[in-house]
TrEMBL record:
InterPro entries according to UniProt: AAA+_ATPase (IPR003593), ABC_transporter-like_ATP-bd (IPR003439), ABC_transporter-like_CS (IPR017871), P-loop_NTPase (IPR027417)
Annotated signal sequence range: none
Residue ranges constituting the ABC transporter domain according to the UniProt record: 4-236
Described function: Part of the ABC transporter complex HmuTUV involved in hemin import. Responsible for energy coupling to the transport system.
Keywords, comma-separated and alphabetical: ATP-binding, Nucleotide-binding, Translocase, Transport
GO molecular function ontology, one term from the record: ATP hydrolysis activity
Residue ranges crossing the lipid bilayer per the database entry: none
Family per record: Belongs to the ABC transporter superfamily.
Protein name as it appears in the record: Iron complex transport system ATP-binding protein
Superkingdom field: Bacteria
Length: 258
């Protein structure tokens, strides 16, 4: 089943074209890494998919177009790039906001909602902070709380923009394990990632963007070739197969031509 179907998507910001006819299909069970250099259009693609920026083209979520905001929130959860929290709410209260699309107006969370919140906090390792104000936590802890809020939404599709930013290696791997688990359970995750090592090791598929277009789409070993790393990222890299999957480590800038 297709959870995200984007066809011929164009976005302009002012006079500048940012997305140039993007087409992308994401099925249930996929963990897709959206990769590419700064300015490639990755964040704009996510925002256009959610209707947050004007666009031209077709975007279908679980086979539907023209969804209301509430209907869309039942299909797709979003972790934005900016994750600073300024509200003195408890961790549990912030995570419970992810249940809003499922609650009738003016109703209180029920047992199913409380279970979803508790499960999301456990997955992101923030259950011990449940009663603390989010503003008392570190930046990385706040990031994990907001990811937990998206997980509590229980949407079949999760879009996450640079979700590993600010996380230490333990929690980066925990997060990637969680995303991989969502895909195995039949959901789908599309994550914008700059860490090519994590993308190569954990994603089932990579979509490489450059200058507002998709230049490669497929399994990590087919996308992250030495030639593409040189031409798109302008780096020399170590690329090897390992027991845990593909290992990719950028080493240096490519030598300038004389």
């Amino acid at each position: 089943m297709s959870l995200l179907d984007v066809r011929d998507l164009h976005v302009r910001l002012g006079a500048r074209p940012v997305l140039r006819g993007i087409s992308l299909n994401v099925d249930a069970g996929e963990f897709v890494g959206l990769i590419g250099p700064n300015g490639a259009g990755k964040t704009t693609l996510m925002r256009a998919t959610l209707g947050l920026v004007p666009s031209r083209g077709i975007v279908a979520l679980a086979g539907n177009t023209g969804l209301s905001a509430r209907e869309r929130a039942k299909v797709v959860a979003y972790v934005p790039q900016a994750r600073e929290v300024n509200w003195p709410l408890t961790v549990e209260r912030v995570v419970s906001l992810g249940r809003m699309p499922h609650l009738p107006a003016f109703s209180s969370p029920g047992a199913q909602d409380r279970d979803a919140v508790a499960r999301a906090m456990r997955r992101m390792g923030v259950a011990a902070f449940a009663g603390r104000a989010v503003t008392e936590l570190s930046g990385g802890e706040q990031a994990r709380v907001l990811i937990a809020r998206a997980l509590a939404q229980d949407a079949p599709l999760l879009l996450a923009d640079e979700p590993t930013a600010g996380l230490d290696p333990e929690h980066q791997i925990t997060l990637m394990r969680t995303f991989a688990g969502i895909a195995r359970e039949g959901g789908s995750v599309v994550a914008c990632l700059h860490d090519l090592g994590l993308a190569a090791s954990w994603c089932t598929r990579l979509v490489l963007m450059e200058a507002g277009a998709v230049v490669a789409d497929g399994p990590p070993r087919d996308v992250l070739t030495l030639d593409r790393l040189r031409s798109v990222y302008h780096v020399e890299a170590y690329v090897r197969e390992h027991d845990h999957g593909l290992v990719v480590q950028p080493l240096d800038l490519i030598a300038p031509r004389q």
